[in-house]
Amino acid sequence: MKINICIGSSCHLKGSRLIVEGMQALVREHGLEGDVELSGRFCMGGCQNGVCLTVDGRKFSLKPDDVGAFFESEVLKRV
């Protein structure tokens, strides 16, 4: 599974660093280092509602407080 998280200026201001750190911690906590690839990207064109990210090409907008619930619903259920 490949997760791209926007680290462009608008998403940075909306908390992309916190999302990256949260995702990294959750991947480690669940022992998914070999199954989940995290990477940063610049503007992905969907930052109106939150930080833009993709999971295997599917687009999402996320706020830092939603990382845990998002990880559970979109990552754990698919690996």
Folded structure, characterized:
- This protein has helices at 9-13, 16-29, 67-76; strands at residues 2-6, 37-41, 51-55, 58-62.
- 37% of the residues lie in helices and 25% in strands.
- It is α+β, with helices and mostly antiparallel strands and 79 residues long.
- The chain is globular and about 30 Å long.
- Strand 3 and strand 4 form a beta hairpin.
- It starts with a strand and ends with a helix.
- The longest helix has 14 residues, at 16-29.
- It has a 4-stranded mixed sheet with strand order 2-1-3-4.
- It contains 3 helices and 4 strands; from the N terminus they run E-H-H-E-E-E-H.
What descriptive keywords fit this protein?
79 residues; globular; four-stranded mixed beta sheet; alpha+beta
Subunit organisation of the chains: single chain
Shape, principal axes of CA atoms: globular
Helix content: 25-40%
The secondary structure category is: alpha+beta
End-to-end Cα distance, whole Å, is 7 Å
> How would you write the strand order of the largest sheet?
2-1-3-4
Strand proportion: 25-35%
**Number of separate helices:** 3
Rg measurement, Å:
11 Å
On the 0-100 scale, what is the average pLDDT?
94
Specify the biggest β-sheet: 4 strands, mixed
Q: Could you give the count of β-strands?
A: 4
Task: Provide the fold topology.
Layout: E1 2-6, H1 9-13, H2 16-29, E2 37-41, E3 51-55, E4 58-62, H3 67-76
Parallel strand pairs: 1-2
Antiparallel strand pairs: 1-3, 3-4
